[in-house]
Write a structure and sequence with these properties.
elongated, 4 helices, six-stranded antiparallel sheet, alpha+beta
Length: about 300
Amino acid sequence: MNRRGMTTGALIGLIVAIAVVLIFASPTFGFYERIGNAIDIFIPDSWKSEVKPVGGDVILGLNLKTNELQYYDGTNWRDMPKNKEVLEIGGKKLDIRETREAIQDFYGNTLRKTQKIFFYDETKRQFTIQNYPAISETSLGYYPKDYNFLFGCTGNSIKFGNKAGFYVYAIERLSHEFYNLPKYDPWCADIFIGEDNAVYSSDDGTLSKNLPFKDLDYSALIRDAVKWRDQIFEGEECEKFIEVNYEENNDKITGAYTVEKNYPYLVVRVDNSEIGNDKYSNCTQYQKVPNNLLGT
C-alpha cells in the first residue's frame, strides 16, 4: 500500500482505465461524435437551426391518418419542427402550412376525369360517385372529426364520430326486380370508401362497416373507386403534377412534381430535376352516362 492508502492493484487499474478513455476519446474511434449523437436525441427539433436530410433529397409526406405534413430523414418520418412556420431542409426553405395545404388541395380538389358511374350487370347494381358540396366539388373530400353528413340519398344523417379522413362518396342503387324491391321504393344507400380501401355506410346513423346489404360483395366497387380516386398519382393514367413553392439561395422557386401514394403518405420529392409533362391535361374527360342504367 502506498502512502495515500491505495493498493498497487487499484493503482494499476486506474492507470488502465485512464488509458482506455484516452484511446476511445481519439478522433479515430469517433468518441465525440457518438457523444454528440446521444445528446442530439434530447434536443427538440425546434432548437435546431436546420433539419438535415440523408442524401440531400427533400422528401415530404402528407400523413392521411393525421392530415399533417411530415418529412423523411432517410430512415424515419419526422414531425415538422414545433413553433416554426418554415422548414429549412436540404438548402431549401418551405412554408409548412402552405405546403401542407397545397398537398391537401391537390388530393381533395383535383377533378378526376375518368368515368365515375359503375354498373355491375351480374348483380344489377349501380354506383355513382358523387360530389358532396358541403365538403368538396370534386367527389373526394376530407370529412373532419364529428362531422354530421346530411341530405344523402336516404335523407338520413350520418355521424362520422372519430372516423375523420378522406372519403369517396358514392350512391348505391339496386334493381327493384332483381332484388324483389317495391317499385315505389327508390332504394339506395350512401356508401363511403375510406383511405383504408374499406367500405363504410350506416344502418343506425353512425358511420361504420355495417352495410345495408351485408351479403353483397363490394370488392368490384373498391377496385373501381380506388382506381378512380388514385388516377392523378405518379405513373397513373391521369398523372398530375403538384406545384410547390420554396426558397433556395435567396431565389423564390415554384417547382412541379409528381405525387406518389404510399399509404398512409402522399409523398412529394422536392428537387431540381426535370420531369417533362404530366398526363393530366391530355387525359380524356369522362362521358356522362344516363342515370337510369337499372331500368327500374
